[in-house]
Amino acid sequence: MFGKLFKSKNGDTDRPLGSEKDSEVRWRSGLSKTNRGLGSGLRSLLLGRSGLDKELREELEVMLISADVGIETSSYLLNRLDEELRQSGQHKEPLEILAEILKKLLEPLAEPLHIPAHNRPFVIMVVGVNGVGKTTSIGKLAHLLKSQGKEVVLAAGDTFRAAAVEQLQVWGERNDIAVVAQKPGSDSASVIFDALQSATNRQADVLIADTAGRLHNKGHLMAELEKVVRVQKKIDADAPHEVILVLDASTGQNALNQAREFAKAAPLTGLIVTKLDGTARGGVVIGLAHQLQLPVRFLGLGEGIEDLQPFDAEAFVSALLEESDT
Fold it and tell me: How far, in Å, CA of 180 to CA of 86, rounded?
């Protein structure tokens, strides 16, 4: 078996606090189902092999596509693996080479969320369809930013779902964070406009704006999302500074379709992929990164408040491919 891939980037101040061991355990736990599925299958097929014949390639392709890596990305990975195996002269195991290919693919997109001091408030708009974990991710992100000493304001812009407003208010109370909200059914753009004014007056560091869980195939709702972006520019021409799309890993390739539709309505700058702990389809992260070329800001590795983890390519590949100790 190849050596341990996991290395904690302790020097990154934007990452949650915690020991290297705690972080490794969190990654392995969050990706355990994908490891038992895709990771176990890849280990079974590649360990002890020296080349990539037609039969093995077909088996690998089926396995990758079944794990929602996607057809195009699967083909890319196998072509790179075949090329690297030929160049290595059998000096490296195929599984080790695949790990290196995945890290090279993912590392450029493992960009932590950076909040510059001169943008106050720094506006983060969060979009995504209902049920992906959008509001929960906002609450966890707010907790993380506050733990870093930042003053955060939340905008309850998902006005079409009363439970979303209440959920965000609970997060605000739990973390002593101001929440700007109006009655259910109010205009989402109006709520976010008021929240940006409030955050500006308070000289807050960050405004995180929730938005309605729009269906990506509903044109009029996407037009409303464009309006939400437009009204913010009346206060700050550069707002929103970050537009994060939240995707549910368990939806597989549908997540890619959602991302492409949302990109038509808002200037997406990053992704949060949630619910990885509850699915064996974690390969979708690889496909999303390869196809969209958008930074993966965070992964949802569990239900705990610390389980929204900044994306770490090396930790991801290690937890995906290495055999679990348990």
Answer: 59
Count of the separate structural domains present in the chain: 2
Residue 94 to residues 56, 195, 282, Cα–Cα distance (Å): 12, 52, 21
Position 317 in a domain:
no
Helices (H), the chain: 20-30, 32-34, 40-46, 54-66, 71-88, 94-106, 134-147, 162-175, 188-202, 219-232, 254-265, 284-292, 313-321
Task: Label residues 120-133 b or e (16+ Cβ within 10 Å = b).
Answer: bbbbbbbbbbeebb
User: Are both 27 and 138 inside the same structural domain?
Assistant: no
Q: Specify whether 191 is located in the same domain as 302.
A: yes
Residue 29: CB partners within 8 Å, gap ≥ 6? 277, 301, 302
Q: Model confidence over 21-47: pLDDT tens digits?
A: 578 899 999 999 999 999 999 999 999
Q: What is the pTM of this model?
A: 0.91
Q: What is the model's pLDDT at position 32?
A: 96
Q: Same structural domain for residues 159 and 262?
A: yes
Integer Cα distance of 281 and 169 in angstroms:
32
Q: Is the Cβ–Cβ distance between 138 and 168 less than 8 Å? A: yes
155 and 39 share one domain = no
Query: What does the alpha-carbon distance between residue 67 and residue 27 come to, in Å, rounded to a whole number?
Result: 18
Structure-block tokens of residue 214: 């729009």
Through-space distance between the first and last CA atoms of the chain, rounded to whole angstroms:
16
Alpha-carbon Rg of the chain, whole angstroms? 21
Q: Per-residue pLDDT tens for 146-168?
A: 999 999 999 999 988 878 999 99
Phi-psi domain of 239 (left: phi exceeds 0; alpha: psi -120 through 50; beta: other): beta
Beta bridge partners of 245: 127, 271
**Among candidates 163, 274, 265, which has minimal Cα distance to 218?**
265
